[in-house]
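Below is a complete specimen:
___
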Amino acid sequence: MNGQSGGRAGAPRYSPIILIVDAEDSSRDAASTAVKRRFGADYEIQAVGSGAQGLDSIRRFIERGYDIAIIAADIGLPDVDGVSFLERAHALEKQATRILLIPMDESHTNFPLSQFHRVRRATALGQIDLALVKGWDTPEEWLYPQLQEALTAWTRAHRPQHLVYRVLGDPWAPRSHEIRDILTRNGIPFRFFSLESEEGQRLALDHKVDGQQLPALIRHDGSVLQNPSSAQIAAAHGISTRASREKYDLAIVGAGPAGLAAAVFGASEGLQTVVIEGQAIGGQAGTSSMIRNYLGFPRGINGSELAHRAWEQAVLLGAEFVFTHEALAVEADGDGLILTLTDEEPIRADAVIIATGVTYRRLGVQALDRLTGVGVFYGAAGVEAPAFSGEPVAVIGGANSAGQAALHLASFASEVVMVVRGHSLTAGMSRYLIDQIEATSNIRVVLSARVIEGYGDARLNALQIEDTDSAERTTLAVSAAFVLIGAEPHTSWLVSVSRDDRGFVYTGSDVPPEYWPATPPPLPFETNLPGVFAAGDVRFGSIKRVAGGVGEGSVAVGSVHQYLRGRMKA
């Protein structure tokens, strides 16, 4: 339940291990020397010459309580294939980053094409985390940047950091889950303590925490927030919750991929831009543990990290963000538009982009609704996964987000059962995810099934599923269920905007003629309300992918410019 974990539980603190496994003496010595020169002050570098020695070393490190940051193995070990070795190593130590070492081609300038198929397959199946060439002349070019990136990611996930908050409460209370989710999705370092634990009791006593007003957030400066609202957390953390101007050129509702892209392009092109976000940047994409098919990230990128990079880029270009407020209405107002918000003065703008995305659909099982936040979770598994180490869990759904959640959970849970309504995964999931799921031994996929009941008093302990073909019922003993069964748009507040029967917003040529009788027709991404645009998952006909949302948010800004030029001419 930690926002940031502190390595192997109960172990003494030692420098983490970087293990190099390579039978070729010259390349092993060169790699070991180069890595020690750059990283030796913070990591212990160990090098061995065979797969058997490597596995023995890993077992010994684990017995002694060492954390292993990186295991790098040559693809051609004498006693075992490098990929197979890394699979065995991963079974012993799931936290370590797995690197496959590949000899350079004969020109000493490129990745060897002869090994490309093996590397691609190992990556697709989740057997390795990345591949690096060996035999380089300049480690500054071929080794250090990639290794630093891997170590940075490992450190963020597995080493203690400066904690902004220590959160104290009941681990199974829904509000405790909400607080952890808010802090995690916004990238705020924290650690959670149960009030019943010894350390939790000490914190409560030292900081005079009122046990009737939980959860409590203890800041790094010692101040305490008792059962705070999201706005109170934001204010304490210095996050802006108020607009600084009376009017903007462009207001964007939603800070998911589409909204963030629109903010970057709007601000970079000189528009006074404000983004309104009620919860956290990144939307659903921000909860993804790993996005592997986003352009420019061959080794994949965590959804939260991608969102925070985009947020930082937008801010540096001049975009303003207003957090913790939801939009309630958008209406024409004289020569512009007015956005009505919760607990905030209205925001006026010349143009508005709706990028509110979608929210996960509920199962509609009463027993599971009662257990939401206490074993039943809607959305990806990033914040809760470590709490279920060694326990069986279920993932309900068969699309990309469900596949990503299952793979992430498999690193912690004893078994992950995917419950999928469809007859196969191919209809809604990318091939690379299907390949990884099939190659992960502790993921079991149950097709043609639906959840009909849940069991548990204080927390979930079992699900009942039904085969949609035979009506046969089975009980699954699970400690948690992560529900990702499709999504519905959050658009009930758009009373003046035309939508389909599911709530997705019509734009451009899809706007029904009765809603836009005039000529010329709406601009691309423009709704039936002039000056109001929609982009990303919320839009009718959009491709529900991160890259699709980014593309639509970017292109929608072009239509905004065209609309504003038309107004100036008028």
